[in-house]
Amino acid sequence: AIAEELLSREIELGGEERVVTVLFSDIRGFTTLCEGQSPKEILAMLNRYLTRMTDVVQGHDGVVDKYIGDALMALFGAPLQRDDDALRALRTAVGRRDALAVLNEETAREGGRPIIAGVGLHTGNVVVGNMGSESRLNYTVIGDGVNLASRLEGLTKFYGVELVISEFTHRKLENILCRKLDLVQVKGKHNAVAIYEPVCAGCDAGDELRAELDTYEEALAAYYGQQWDKA
Question: Distances from the Cα of 135 to the Cαs of 64, 66, 81, 130, in angstroms?
Fold first, then answer.
């Protein structure tokens, strides 16, 4: 369906502004992971990993925009828009985690090292279209939203989580229980952005988990209010 949509249009340079959810995933410690391996082994490992991750993206009707070394960038909302693009992106992030766990089990049996990857999700305005030159062009997205998704992925290591979403993606997710991580000013942004970690679907949350998150929110509010002892 995506290929037909793209091929039905006149192929020319240029783009249009659109709200898209961008998923950015990156392997942590990739240089260390590659130590002691030949280039052929590294490439085989990377292709195996990216194949599994791509299957998950496409399984939720996302589009892999590009591979950047060991990083993967995917789009939800371009070229085809759906009302639940942000939810599809979140389901992809969760499915990617499960697929990675299976892959790590397989590589462990083969004597390989486990792969750990972080994911950032952001929903916002981007310019989407064909970009490049008259002789070589690429269907992609550019803009602040892409940069922010990449920055959020980088924050996963700092906050000790696998997935970080922006407040803008958070607003698009109904009945998803999330934990507010912080209010951050990422590189290249003038305004602070609230970031969250999705916990589970609201219907799956028990009383104990809800109570724990309520206590956490109270502590975070005290922290922001500089009430250190209370926090």
Answer: 22, 19, 28, 12
Length of the chain: 231
Which residue is listed with tokens 């990422």?
Answer: 186
Determine the Cα–Cα distance for residues 221 and 199; give it in Å rounded to an integer. 19
Angle between helices 85-109 and 39-59 (to 10 degrees): 140
Mean pLDDT by 10 residues, the chain (231 residues): 68 77 93 86 92 95 92 91 93 94 93 91 90 80 89 93 95 90 80 90 79 92 94 93
The predicted model scores a pTM of 0.88
Structure tokens at 208: 């104990």
Residues 6+ apart with CB under 8 A from 217: 180
At 86, list the tokens.
Answer: 């942000």
Quickly count helices (H) and strands (E) in the chain: 7, 8
